[in-house]
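#struct-pred
JK: can someone run the complex with manganese (II) ion? inputs below
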Amino acid sequence: MNIQDYIKRRNNLKEKVKEGIIFLSGNSLVPRNYPSNPFSFRQDSTFLYYTGIDLPDFYLIIDCDKSEEILFGNELTTEDTVWSGAKESIKEIANKTGIKCTKSVSELSNTIINAKSKNRKIHFLPPYPGSRQILLSKLMGLDIEKLIENTSRELIEAVISQRSVKSDKEVLQIENALNDVTGPMHIKAMQMAQPGIYEYEIVAEMNRMAKLKNIDFAYPVICSVYGEILHNDTHGNKLQKGQLLLIDAGAENQLHYASDITRTTPVGGKFDSRQKAIYEIVLNTQEQAIESVKPGVKYLDIHIEAAKNITSGLKDLGLIKGNIEEAVQAGAHALFFPHGLGHMLGLDVHDMEDLGENLVGYDKNIKRSSQFGTAYLRLARTLEPGFVITVEPGIYFIPQLISLWRTGKKFNDFINYPESEKFLDFGGIRIEDNVLVINGGHKVLGNKIPKSVTDIENISFTIQ
Ligand code: GLY
Ligand code: MN
Ligand code: MN
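RT: done, structure tokens with the ligand placed:
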């Protein structure tokens, strides 16, 4: 990204929002246990998108009517430089992103009060960190509870429309995260998935590989022999023969573009026949779903098709019975596939989720389902060229859910409970790739990461 990219993005934003004042807030450091011991800094993704400034405590005001931009930041004091070293001046930082006017943060409130006194509309986005909620509450003179209903729909929609369509440069950043770290770390993890190894040893190695490139994960790593726990972020189990290890991990690159890959590997490197049968259903479903990705197709339809493929595969194995269409329409498949097929990917792993899942993933024509399973689909809208999405079907055997549904006699016509209960110790399988929507079709991003049964078995046996 260069200065012109940021200038162009802000100009487009101004044109879309048309009038009033746009307020964009960067993030501050978040204390871990006391203020001078903070979590590592992660900039707000929208702020990064429009400025590229990757430092705490910056704010931007864009005056749509006067075409004026002001960057608010504080110069370091001498004392700051003693502890943290000298940094660029606010002017230098502003110049790099093409902003001419700078002010200190203490002037922010006057600027907003002044605009409000002239009855000008102040556009702001939903604030997710507590500190930003407090700041906005003070600046706007609104109770924190009232902030959400006062966010600017025009601004939210403008940001979503820009950030949803990735430029070639942005796609390269995602591929950079995939090829530099995420792909190699999944391959390494497959090789390490041997009996006697602890999950945390694999996570540590993946972390080392990311740190060697001076980058971090885009989200907490899922590395678990209990893959049926969808967002399991504990890593304390010792791998045992016969188990499956599900790893959902992705690095974000230097510019913070995310990657989001899942692979499932048999501990010891060889699938048993039952694991292979379920794995092939998930793989086949994922490959068919990827094939369907193209502009003009609703992602909801691809999700439903994936649900049918999973249902059909499980019916062949005797776990589901009855009519496949009817089973999926009723929502019976969600016992085994209880989440959505995917989501947008970009500067956030669930891209722009802070702006509102429904505004990002749904549109006027597609309302969110309230049915268990399909309700968790984050992306349902019609696909457009430039969208980067994940395709991540899975099959899971969740003992509590199976027990609950069985006791409640839920979907007795569709679920073969005695057969399903033979899989209570199975765990879960998910396969996830990152896909760019292009004219007429799609492109799977990044170098190939082993995915077929044969490729995974081969990579696992090329150990040490
Ligand atoms: N890594 C979280 C997800 O796949 O949605
Ligand atoms: Mn994932
Ligand atoms: Mn994902």
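RT: quick notes.
The radius of gyration is 24 Å.
The pocket of manganese (II) ion (ligand 3) is lined by residues 260, 343, 390, 392, 432 (CB under 6 Å).
JK: thanks, will look after standup
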